[in-house]
Design a protein that fits this description.
The complex is a heterodimer of chains A (about 250) and B (about 200). Chain A is α+β, with helices and mostly antiparallel strands and about 250 residues long. Chain A is about 40% helix and about 20% strand. Chain A contains 7 helices and 10 strands. In chain A, helix 1 packs across helix 2. The longest helix of chain A has 23 residues. Helices cover about 30% and strands about 15% of the residues of chain B. The longest helix of chain B is centred in the first third of the chain and has 27 residues. The chains are: A alpha+beta (about 250), B alpha+beta (about 200). The interface between A and B is medium-sized, with 22 and 28 residues.
Chain lengths: ~250, ~200
Amino acid sequence: MSRSLTPVKVIAADIAADIGDSVGRHQFRLMRKVLEGYRDMHLYVDQDFSVKTQILEVDNVINMPCDFVYETKVGILKDGKIAVMSLDKDLRKRKLTDSQTLGELNDIWCGIGLWDAYTFYNCYSGVNYLGELYGFGGVYNTNGFYNINRQTGEIYIGSMMPEGAQIIVEYKSDGTSEGLELVPTEVVMALKYFAKSEFYADTNPSLSAMNRLNYEREYRKVKALYNYRTALFMASEVQSYHKSSPR
Amino acid sequence: MIKGIFTDLVLLKINGGIMNTESAVKREDIRAYIAPAINWAMMKSYYLNIQSEGNRDFPSQFYGTFNDLDIVRPASARPYFILPKGYVPLPSNQGIRYVTDGCDNTYTPLQDSDMALINYYSKQLTGVHFYRPSGNQVQLIGLPKLMNKISAVVIVDVDQLTDDDILPIQAGQEVDAINVCVEFFTGQRQLPGDKLNNKADINVA
């Protein structure tokens, strides 16, 4: 979906011009405030606004991007299909060296140390085939689990992955840390009032309070926009509650 | 008003309206004092404009434009360019009106307090370019990699103007600036010397 976007610098320059700053000496300060406002919105406005999907390099330990706040889904992408993984808090970080990996792979191919798990390519559970995406390797958990260390911003993958697969992570972004140039046009007014409110916070509290009120009004408008659902959607939701169970 | 006429008017007034060769005040003396007088007049008109219209602009006819300045890229420091002339020392480096490149990127000035934050925010504010003047050297932050020339628009320091250059005085402030200069040379109290520093020779009369 294409979006109408406005550069952060334009917002800052606009405010600077409004307050009579002819050379833009307050622009940097205003840009910082715009960033703060945008980060705030990113965290508290609807999911559609702030959830980001990123395909990351395959490894046992995945370093999250710097704008990562928390993950909403972790999955493996292979041949256009995504297998969503489950969180297992017992998983611990284990990063293998090349020689260890080689040893583990040899174990798999030779059938050593397989315990009661399944080799990756066959993935037979004893009852049925699990499919290739839930691979298995050596002593690792084989059921497609991951764990996350929020302090270090790392995701640990508990399964071996098929060749050519990619890790796909959907996460809540703070919206700014990875660099921000453009913001959605619908939030520009709110950001302007936020920046002005913060700008005057120390020097002119009454002006700051007035801008804060305007910001809150604009914030509610943005939130309403992002939470908007059509009547048809609501009707289908209600209808779904009344559907009879299959006979 | 050009600098040469300003100097002559001050000299004329000091001499009571009749130019003469015996005058103790020379043109060089006046030229040395023009910069403080003009800066005073500029700041006065600056604050008057803010009070009356909330406007911090200066008349742009006083702006000097320097195009195609070479950007220097040292190995261990930020890229910079050198301004060929000094600029009027207005507060917050407002003597530099703007810095721009051939791609219409306008650079954002940084203040002292911003410098502690720029390393962090320059990575977040992608696509925004900054400058920071330090003397006549202007550092550039977030400079596009292929950029090698830049333009700057400044109000040139009055000391560095020639007699044919226009002085940056807003209309209506010329007389005040002339009077400030004249007062400096004529309004000084005539005290006799006190070479022994015992006030004896002052009180002789």
